[in-house]
């Protein structure tokens, strides 16, 4: 990772009110260019969703912002360069829900959420009363109290997704990265999880950076969207500005109809 000063347009990392400042982000994996010179700012309290076709580089970009992958360019979190934050400070600043997290076999819901408190527990130390209270708070906030003693592998997809979110929230970070948070969920549970995130965003002043495939749902919740294609930002703006028939035809290679909706446009694929 490099800590060079931000270079791209709109990349003034220390600017007040910017929670995530990404400038000229470039990621190569095994020599292949996967994310190409991406600039992206997320204001404090804002919800930005990255969309794009399969293989566009959405997850890779998100993982880089989370510090999970080496990259070139710069990422600043609330003005602090990501690569100068120690692992614990980083975990207190930004929490990630990845796709299909690895779950330790046999772990209970309570113990899994407690893992979110790791940055607060001293090496070789034990969790404090504050850590246990934080887990209780998230169990209550996400309606998981009856599941606390259950093994995670006995939960339904929707219940498990709430637990993943609870663990991330227990970290106490003000920035939440969500990679496809609703991919395994039916339409009702998708809405439930996204409403919950939106509610917690307002209540706790969280900033959300997400990736999503369902374009209509993504547009419903995002303040702004970024369309990634071939690792590059090809459109950015409000859902109405990004979810256009022309943008989607060009980058998803699909004929769609875009219908003005309540919060964001509704996108329907049509047979050609
Ligand atoms: N280690 C690697 N070496 C080379 N290419 C890789 C490696 N890991 C991932 N890729 C490629 O990077 C590209 C982007 O992957 P990524 O998962 O970021 O895309 P995505 O937009 O999140 O896709 P999806 O919507 O399918 O989840 C894909 O073409 C993938 O095959």
From TrEMBL:
What keywords are assigned to this protein?
Answer: ATP-binding, Nucleotide-binding, Transport
Q: Which residues form the ABC transporter domain?
A: 20-255
Give the top-rank taxon of the lineage listed in the UniProt record for this protein.
Answer: Bacteria
Supply one GO molecular-function term: ATP hydrolysis activity
What is the protein name stated in its UniProt record?
A: Iron complex transport system ATP-binding protein
Organism this protein belongs to: Actinoplanes regularis
The top of its lineage is:
Bacteria, Bacillati, Actinomycetota, Actinomycetes, Micromonosporales
């Amino acid at each position: 990772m490099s800590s060079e000063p931000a270079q791209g347009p709109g990349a003034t990392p220390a600017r007040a009110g910017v929670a995530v400042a990404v400038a000229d982000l470039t990621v190569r994996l095994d020599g292949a260019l996967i994310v190409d010179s991406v600039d992206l700012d997320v204001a404090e309290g804002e919800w930005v969703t990255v969309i794009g076709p399969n293989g566009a580089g959405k997850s890779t970009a998100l993982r880089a912002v989370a510090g999970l992958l080496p990259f070139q360019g710069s990422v600043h979190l609330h003005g602090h360069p990501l690569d100068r934050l120690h692992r614990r400070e980083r975990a207190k600043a930004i929490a990630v829900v990845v796709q299909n997290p690895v779950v330790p076999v046999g772990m209970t819901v309570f113990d899994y959420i407690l893992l979110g408190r790791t940055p607060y527990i001293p090496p070789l130390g034990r969790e404090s009363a504050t850590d246990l209270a934080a887990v209780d708070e998230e169990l209550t906030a996400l309606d998981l109290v009856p599941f606390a003693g259950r093994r995670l592998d006995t939960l339904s997809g929707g219940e498990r997704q709430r637990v993943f979110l609870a663990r991330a929230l227990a970290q106490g970070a003000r920035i939440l990265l969500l990679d496809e948070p609703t991919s395994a969920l039916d339409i009702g549970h998708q809405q439930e999880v996204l409403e919950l995130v939106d509610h917690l965003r307002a209540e706790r002043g969280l900033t959300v950076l997400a990736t999503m495939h369902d374009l209509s749902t993504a547009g419903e919740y995002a303040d702004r969207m970024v369309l990634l294609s071939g690792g590059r930002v090809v459109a950015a703006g409000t859902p109405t500005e990004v979810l256009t028939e022309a943008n989607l035809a060009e980058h998803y290679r699909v004929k769609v109809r875009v219908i003005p909706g309540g919060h964001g446009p509704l996108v329907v694929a049509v047979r050609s």
